[in-house]
Amino acid sequence: MKIIDCHAHMAVPHQLPAYKASILSHRGAHGRKAPPVSNEALEQAFNRVEMAPMGHLACLDQAGVDIQLLSPRPFQLMHSEEPKKLVHWYVEYANDIIAQECALYPERFYGVAGLPQTGDSPITEALPELERCVKEFGFRGCLINPDPFENNGRMAPPMGDRYWYPLYEKLCELDVVGHIHSASSRAPEREPYSLHFINEETTAVYGLCKSTVLEDFPALKILVSHGGGAIPYQLGRFDATTVPRNGMSTSGVRFRDRLQKLYFDTVLYSRDAIELLVKVVGASQCLYGAEMPGVGSSIDPETGETFDTIIPHINGLSFISDDERKAILGGNAARLFNIEA
Amino acid sequence: MKIIDCHAHMAVPHQLPAYKASILSHRGAHGRKAPPVSNEALEQAFNRVEMAPMGHLACLDQAGVDIQLLSPRPFQLMHSEEPKKLVHWYVEYANDIIAQECALYPERFYGVAGLPQTGDSPITEALPELERCVKEFGFRGCLINPDPFENNGRMAPPMGDRYWYPLYEKLCELDVVGHIHSASSRAPEREPYSLHFINEETTAVYGLCKSTVLEDFPALKILVSHGGGAIPYQLGRFDATTVPRNGMSTSGVRFRDRLQKLYFDTVLYSRDAIELLVKVVGASQCLYGAEMPGVGSSIDPETGETFDTIIPHINGLSFISDDERKAILGGNAARLFNIEA
Amino acid sequence: MKIIDCHAHMAVPHQLPAYKASILSHRGAHGRKAPPVSNEALEQAFNRVEMAPMGHLACLDQAGVDIQLLSPRPFQLMHSEEPKKLVHWYVEYANDIIAQECALYPERFYGVAGLPQTGDSPITEALPELERCVKEFGFRGCLINPDPFENNGRMAPPMGDRYWYPLYEKLCELDVVGHIHSASSRAPEREPYSLHFINEETTAVYGLCKSTVLEDFPALKILVSHGGGAIPYQLGRFDATTVPRNGMSTSGVRFRDRLQKLYFDTVLYSRDAIELLVKVVGASQCLYGAEMPGVGSSIDPETGETFDTIIPHINGLSFISDDERKAILGGNAARLFNIEA
Amino acid sequence: MKIIDCHAHMAVPHQLPAYKASILSHRGAHGRKAPPVSNEALEQAFNRVEMAPMGHLACLDQAGVDIQLLSPRPFQLMHSEEPKKLVHWYVEYANDIIAQECALYPERFYGVAGLPQTGDSPITEALPELERCVKEFGFRGCLINPDPFENNGRMAPPMGDRYWYPLYEKLCELDVVGHIHSASSRAPEREPYSLHFINEETTAVYGLCKSTVLEDFPALKILVSHGGGAIPYQLGRFDATTVPRNGMSTSGVRFRDRLQKLYFDTVLYSRDAIELLVKVVGASQCLYGAEMPGVGSSIDPETGETFDTIIPHINGLSFISDDERKAILGGNAARLFNIEA
Amino acid sequence: MKIIDCHAHMAVPHQLPAYKASILSHRGAHGRKAPPVSNEALEQAFNRVEMAPMGHLACLDQAGVDIQLLSPRPFQLMHSEEPKKLVHWYVEYANDIIAQECALYPERFYGVAGLPQTGDSPITEALPELERCVKEFGFRGCLINPDPFENNGRMAPPMGDRYWYPLYEKLCELDVVGHIHSASSRAPEREPYSLHFINEETTAVYGLCKSTVLEDFPALKILVSHGGGAIPYQLGRFDATTVPRNGMSTSGVRFRDRLQKLYFDTVLYSRDAIELLVKVVGASQCLYGAEMPGVGSSIDPETGETFDTIIPHINGLSFISDDERKAILGGNAARLFNIEA
Amino acid sequence: MKIIDCHAHMAVPHQLPAYKASILSHRGAHGRKAPPVSNEALEQAFNRVEMAPMGHLACLDQAGVDIQLLSPRPFQLMHSEEPKKLVHWYVEYANDIIAQECALYPERFYGVAGLPQTGDSPITEALPELERCVKEFGFRGCLINPDPFENNGRMAPPMGDRYWYPLYEKLCELDVVGHIHSASSRAPEREPYSLHFINEETTAVYGLCKSTVLEDFPALKILVSHGGGAIPYQLGRFDATTVPRNGMSTSGVRFRDRLQKLYFDTVLYSRDAIELLVKVVGASQCLYGAEMPGVGSSIDPETGETFDTIIPHINGLSFISDDERKAILGGNAARLFNIEA
After folding, report:
1. How many beta-carbon pairs below 8 A join chains D and E?
2. Can you give the pLDDT at residue C340?
3. CATH top-level class of A4-336
């Protein structure tokens, strides 16, 4: 059995941030031309020591991860920038580099596309790039940003709104995974991007579980980042409003039943949280994820291990079977992402 | 030992919503005059069967709750309405009624004030009402709404900002509890008030734990609603950024250490969640709360009990001592709220 | 001959403001469900002493009014609230209660519907409710709010604009009366709702008399509240611009000729004003109205009568015939509202 | 006894609109320089046949008016234009020309200043010009625009607000009259300036009669244009809210009592309206005004007289004494404006 | 050979600014009626001494100009005023007067229409007036304002945008000249209209030379005011980006090549500048223009000549042939404007 | 004599754009820490072939430039980004790197600071960084961006406004040069940054020459980029408004006289333009500048030279003396920037 980290981000060669800085400086006046990246540059990026005590590849080796799903760093996607073509240019360049990385390490990495979502545009404008990545590069899914306004005070439609249906339809048609993950935050003092991720996941899961999306798209595969924000922990609160009260029946589907149709990664960085997640949503809905290297790559002074050392937590769950453990560590991901593992 | 529900809301006599509807209709043109409420009307309100299978008092009796802290229903506080005097009028009327309720059942209820917070005003404009409630009525704390804009797209300063310091100072001076709880939401499709509560608690705890508020006000007593939003579940994520990384030391205090100085109620409606909360923040920081009757007063079809049947969950925690159990059920609250219990 | 008060508002049972307060608190999150109102509650409301020295029914008896047209209290219609569905919910509930009131006192009351008008919506969105009230409940007219923005700084199209034509068409088709009456005011310090009524009536009459609406809809029956705002008093000013000046002919219809096609109620609270009104627009265009109980139900210290004691004023008009007097007191209303009286 | 028309506007030489057009074109880039106007040009202006069947002076002669108070044409004052210096330039030029007109016909004309009011500025910025006109030119009053935003959706403070107190103070100090008259309207389709005059007068009188201005400034002399908008006609409505209701005493002064401290001109163009005005506010508060030549200078086809033929209406009032008649026609104005007549 | 001044503005009779002031005061409430202008008034206007040391006609005679193209004074066109119908009314009146002027001096003047451009409208709304002027009056071109927002902070599409194509098409169809010239500026402190002209010309030429307009409309005749703003002086800068760099070919047409398809007037007021212009764009693209009388009609203390004494500068150019000189002075204009000269 | 290029920009090591991309992604959440840059990285940057046919140092050698003034690339300064601390962080990092570059090549490079200007802040907030760069690093001047809003529709005060006086004062106090140069443009389709440079220079020179800045600060040294935008070419236009007209004297200083107190670089890329510049402003006010490598580093197909081959143009000026030539090529810069050359 192969261990699959379902939530990880690309190694970033120098050209990508330089490109971002450049187009944000000229705002499109120099055109979209992006410099080619050599495989050497990519290898260098995969071995650069930056966020973690060792390079990207070394992290995987040490943790025993066989396969990773790679997507763009979400907080760099700048979905709220203007003019909107800059968003398209940047994300296409990032996806191109991910495709090159997957080609360079074909056994190890599979692509998850960033989408060129922008605040006031119909979601259909992001679909050609999804299609390009899946059909040309063989990507297995895409990030979905529930807040392309990037917390600027305006608000996107909730995830149950018809606004999103063309995307859900396309995901089903292509049979790929939609991975919920917001981007940056324009209110960094109050709610920096890392916190905004959590709030947006909470809001996204709520929106999906209070709507009929999951009934309307039975084949839809939605993976929620970071263990689903607050929802598994707060389930009782939302579940309580979908059972009958004082004899009044409630027409809708129970919140918990919908919740258990979504998938969640284990990017939670503590055993207690992972335990709660698996108990609440079930082993069949959990996918090992460590987002490695990343925010969890610092060393917990108490354990001497990085926070993103998550496999031992999964191995330590006493209340699941071995098959369930394997499913969490790789089986579920293999099935969802169509990876032969 | 007395069991204390630290998070509950007033029984609402007909006059209060009628008053709200009235001032929102005339927008202040008829002046502020509010009708007196008789004790009979209050008794009726405490026995009305509405959200729960039985009346307010009966809920307490059945659950075995001895004492409750009563505050206004937060989602009715309309902090974002204009002109701002309407906010003051309403909250003062609500606090008056709570005071009358506490006087009617002096053993059973203690008051927690609503504050007349409004979006663009300095927090000092809300402090006279806090002082009035504590000094005239003997209230033991107040609600703090981290988002007086009520999710209208504008954003209040984060909880670590100097904006809030006069309130923290006043809370220390009066030796009463600040209870974090947001109000309504102007974006009900995407993020209805009940969900907004959770996101605002997440944001508020983050703001407190990333700032020096708790060092600047060592005596400050902050109680966070609903088990702290997402934070106890997501602790690893935020903790990981406050330990040294790659040899670079970090100047700040560790996130977890600050988190463990805040207090949390157990309004979580599931045993798993309460277990996680107590493990993460410690028994000394947890206060039994059930917000009864309230959102959790519907009956879980599986157990036949209401979701807000929380005392058994606390009794069932295997990893805490009996003293810790008592502390959670009442001792911590008695100490914090200065209740002789 | 029956005396008909053409301008009066429903008796308000406790449930209606409570419902308003509730939906404004949860902003739709709890759904639209409105509690049923018992006939006993309505009877109680019709006998409650509140604005007037006696209850609603007693006022009518004392004044000698046989029949009243009942509409929602306009200043409570909250046309400018968001989300717009709240406006629909509230007005439909209010209309339902009026229908129940008319059914309870079938000889005495006839319904006039509130409309779910909202600022940025086409007027067609308000028409299904009008149709429901007329066809299902037998209502005889509806309120028309010329300012659904409720004085928030944005402005609705003038009453002569094509925007309103679908409403005019529907009124003609259903053969019911459109009763001009604005709602609340978002600028209560400068222009509280009661003053805004007057200014909006002035503006509405102007808009109708400067456009071709009355030629385009010869069968249209428009009743203007409170004696037409300022217009009958200021007629000379506006009339003077529609006669030839310095030999230049003027193409339009004379202002006064159009004015005399509209209908006006006598809710003016002084004999001088009523006298002027009847002189200016003619007895055939005046309908007795007292809006009882209401703003005029306080007692004039000089006369010892309530200001809304209007019938004696009409009886005292020396310059009209007895037939004209009867027409004002009831005949005109019976004809307009299709009431057999 | 001399007949005094208290409400009239300057004769406009070609230079004034040309100057307005010019500064609105260059927006201040050419500086403020305004061309001198010759006395011949003024004479020409006073004899030009434009709005009325004859020239300005001829109108006065024919009507038998001895003296007129001249102010700028209000709808041309452009208080809402930017940059604000343009407003100052224009109004100062207009006042200069009025001063020249008064000097040219010293027995016939007395000046009433326009003020350079602008939307967001303190009223103190308009006072130097008032002082200049009174002290240098001997003007007897000024126009007060209650809406310097000119109906653009933003709203000035109500007339009872402290915002206006420096102006009231200055009027008392200089012992001159404040003449309420709004300017243009930025919403001409819905509410053209001529209609806006009426609504703003209604609102202004309301604001004065609901506040303590008249008690705070007992010497204040306020003259309201066009017979006070809607208020005298609608008095009952507002008066009814300032008498005790259901035993509850009311603290304020009665609306009617305050109303009768204000002064009103008779620019109403119909006998019925003038009759109502005099009845409601009393002869001591009424000043003959015809705004001649002006909006009322067209010929009523029924009478063959211009609408502004108002003296016969006053002469025809049967319920006043001869002294009262003289007071209305000139005595009140002479006293208010300190004119020896 | 006749000397043709291709850039000049109408003589302005008093009625035109008075009309502007009037409609800006009543905002359309009085309707559009504009007073007729007599030929005497026009003659007076052509002989009035205002900006120049002598009258309009005398200026031409003294300078030796045979023919002038007359358009409205651009800074008076008020394209950004509301309601938009005022813009239409004003420009149509101005065009009417120009037509009358051309009829009065048929050998001397040819008309160039102002267009009723307004900020948010499609350019098609301005085309009927263009057509009217060309077909009814025989005008030879029109002004094009690249910034109908008049520098109010919002921005029109660049001149290469499809927004403008219907205008280009119509110009080709009618075979008339489009003369780039902006109107007033709403930011007069920072960028008064006269400076805004220059910046807008710079921006307009840039927009045309960086787009395919000139390829898409080979017959299009665009005349740029004031020697093209900054572009001829700054040509190197923009040209340098349209030649290949470091071996990368560039797909577009060279900036300079497009520049040399546009036409430029010589309204530059200095010999050095005119010399640079002719050198950079070629004699075939230059049209004598002096905008006389106008901004350049003051006397240079050094030369004793007015700044707009431009013909000697053209005569003094040593590097062009006599034929080229004649082309600049009149031949090019005759060809472009279809004038038999 | 040393040849000094007074207008050039830093060599950019990879870390700088990466830093920009990073802080724009996390919006400050990761703090300001910027990576150190090695001297090797700087050397690499100075030898990288990018915009020009050869590296930065090679360009200088080939052209014969001895000394360059280095400032940050203006279009990358992102003055309009939020939160404002990002602007400070970026510019300080850029200045640090320039200081390191000057230290690395002490004979060749002198620093010109970027300023952390931001739209709504007083200019005083940018002065500490100016002081730091001059006092700690020995910089000789700073860039001044007349439009820190970066063309987003809002407008900074004109250069003659008191807003800028603290900066002018500080420049005099430190005896360093203010170099006018705007940054990026938020309207890239209509006016990309490179064009915006020109328009802002035009506007800035206008603002300086129409105000009393140059009289108020006689010691102020202002250098205008790119030959002063449009102004030298358009001088007649602006000069003509500052001489007496029709006998009316003009109070101000003549435009041309002020213009000739400013300094201008020769970054114009064509001999004709440079010739015009020197003629108009005089050799004493011109400083050789080529901004090399930069926008002019592409090869003109006609000459086979890069457009920024400017020294031959200066050498080719026939109408200046040799001393003047030397002054332009280096002497003026040496004096202004206090460089011993």
Report:
1. 88
2. 87
3. alpha beta
Estimate to the nearest angstrom the gap between the alpha carbon of E131 and the chain centroid.
18
Q: Which of F20, F82, F192 sits opposite A21 (nearest CB)?
A: F20
Instruction: Judge whether residue D29 has pLDDT over 70.
Output: yes
Q: Does F156 touch chain E (CB under 8 A)?
A: yes
For residue A328, the model assigns a pLDDT of 98
pLDDT in tens, B176-188: 999 999 999 999 9
pLDDT in tens, B62-103: 999 999 999 999 999 999 999 999 999 999 999 999 999 999
User: Do β-strands D177-180 and C177-180 pair in parallel, antiparallel, or remain unpaired?
Assistant: unpaired
DSSP for D99-130, please give it: HHHHHHSTTTEEEEE-----TTS-GGGGHHHH
Contacts of C189 in chain D (CB under 8 A): 157-158, 161
With H, G, I as helix, E, B as strand and everything else as coil, classify residue A249. coil
Q: What is the mean pLDDT of residues D60-81?
A: 98
In chain E, which ranges are continuous DSSP H helix? 15-26, 39-47, 56-63, 84-104, 127-137, 165-174, 193-209, 213-216, 231-239, 255-259, 271-281, 311-315, 322-326, 332-337
Short-list F223, F79, F216, CA closest to F156: F79
Residues of B whose CB is below 8 A from A195: 202-203, 206, 238
Q: How many Cα atoms are found within 13 Å in the side-chain-facing hemisphere of C74?
A: 27
Annotated domain spans of chain A: 4-336
Contact at CB, F22 and A17, closer than 8 angstroms: yes
Beta strands D141-144 and D109-113 are parallel
- Kindly calculate the radius of gyration of chain B based on its CA atoms and give it in whole angstroms: 19
Are A75 and F188 in contact (CB < 8 Å)?
no
List of chain A residues with pLDDT < 70: 247-251, 341
Instruction: Inspect the interface and report whether the beta carbons of D237 and C53 lie closer than 8 Å.
Output: no
Amino acid identity, position A185: S
Checking DSSP bridges between strand C286-287 and strand F67-71, what pairing results, if any?
Answer: unpaired
Residue B323, both tokens: 């003293």
The gap from C-alpha B295 to its chain's centroid, in whole angstroms, comes to 14
Q: How far is CA D47 from CA C73, C245, D298, in A?
A: 55, 17, 17
Measured distance CA(A166)–CA(A126) in Å, rounded:
10
Q: State the smallest CA–CA distance between residue C222 and chain D in angstroms.
A: 18
- With vertex at residue D264, the alpha carbon angle to CA D258 and CA D268, rounded to the nearest 5 degrees, is 135
Judged by a CB distance cut-off of 8 A, whether residue D268 touches chain C is yes
The CA-atom distances, in angstroms, between C74 and each of B174, C43, C193, C272, C294 are 45, 21, 9, 26, 12
What angle, rounded to 10 degrees, do the helices at D15-26 and E15-26 form? 70
SS3 A19: helix
B104 in A contact zone (CB under 8 Å): no
| Edge-to-edge order in the sheet of strand F263-265 | F4-9, F67-71, F109-113, F141-144, F177-180, F222-224, F263-265, F286-287
pLDDT in tens, C47-66: 999 989 999 999 999 999 99
Residue with tokens 């053993």: B107
Interchain proximity D52–C246, CB inside 8 Å: yes
Instruction: Read off the pLDDT of residues A113-142 as tens digits, 9 standing for 90 and up.
Output: 999 999 999 999 999 999 999 999 999 999
Residue-wise pLDDT tens digits, D202-242: 999 999 999 999 999 999 999 999 999 999 999 999 999 99
pLDDT at B246: 75
Q: What would the pLDDT profile of C123-163 be if each residue is shown by its tens digit?
A: 999 999 999 999 999 999 999 999 999 999 999 999 999 99
Provide the token pair at A177: 């995974």
D50 — contact with chain E (CB < 8 Å)?
no
Q: What is the ipTM of this complex?
A: 0.97
The nearest alpha carbon in chain B to A226 belongs to: B234
Tokens of residue F204, six digits: 């800035």
